[in-house]
Amino acid sequence: MGERLIINVFNKKDDETPLYNIYYHWSGFADSALNELLLLVENDCYKSIPEVVKFITKNGGTVVREDIPLYQEKYDSSYEMPEDASRNQGLVALSEEQINNSISWGEEFIDVYLDDNTFNIKKLFRFADDDILEDYDIDKDKCLHDVKFENQLSLDNIHILLDKIDYLKDNKAAVFVDEEYFIMSAW
């Protein structure tokens, strides 16, 4: 399976429906998911629907086919779906129906909150019991006991989290959080 990632972007934390979301077909792994988010942040396009659509389209993605008329009506009447658009490069959903459709296909999720510039990672880290640690040849003694992943992380700190993930992958280490072992789904 493609480990499908959904990045949901909300105006505020207490909003029930995202402003928009982006479906990525092959990016639902800890490192690739955070790298997709990092690209949006570094290009400062995630705060504006027209800017995120421009960025996603430039990089090979598109607006979800069913939402193109809505996008044309609200933002850019000349927008057309690129012929070579790929779900791997991102599909932007705008209507509640298409946002919910994307969510229904998602396996991994990142929620971004514009009101305080934070994000919440969901399901990118998997519980690993001793058997799984053994299957991945991870030595319990190499588990990191001081790495903390908060529920809400600042968008300014994505690099720090990616560095920790790279370290863990390079050293076949696990993360020790609240007396439970976790490994990255990228393994």
Describe the structure.
The C terminus is likely disordered. Helix 1 packs antiparallel against helix 6. With 187 residues, the protein is of the alpha+beta class. Strand 3, helix 3 and strand 4 form a beta-alpha-beta unit.
In short:
This protein is α+β, with helices and mostly antiparallel strands.
- Estimate the global geometry from the Cα principal axes: elongated
Q: How much strand content do the residues show?
A: 15-25%
**Strands of the largest sheet, in order across it?**
3-4-2-1-5-6-8
Helix content: 25-40%
State the distance separating the first and last CA atoms.
Answer: 14 Å
Low-pLDDT stretches: 144-152, 176-187
Radius of gyration: 18 Å
Number of beta strands? 10
Q: Would you list the SSEs in sequence order as H and E? A: EEHHEHEHEEEHEHEE
Q: What would the average pLDDT be, to the nearest integer?
A: 80
| Major beta-sheet overview | 7 strands, mixed
User: What structural class do the secondary elements suggest?
Assistant: alpha+beta
- Work out the helix count: 6
What structural keywords apply?
187 residues; alpha+beta; seven-stranded mixed sheet; three-stranded antiparallel sheet; 32% helix; disordered C terminus
SSE map:
Blueprint: E1 5-10, E2 20-24, H1 30-42, H2 49-58, E3 62-63, H3 68-74, E4 91-93, H4 96-105, E5 108-113, E6 118-122, E7 125-127, H5 130-135, E8 153-154, H6 158-170, E9 175-177, E10 180-184
Helix pairs in contact: 1-6
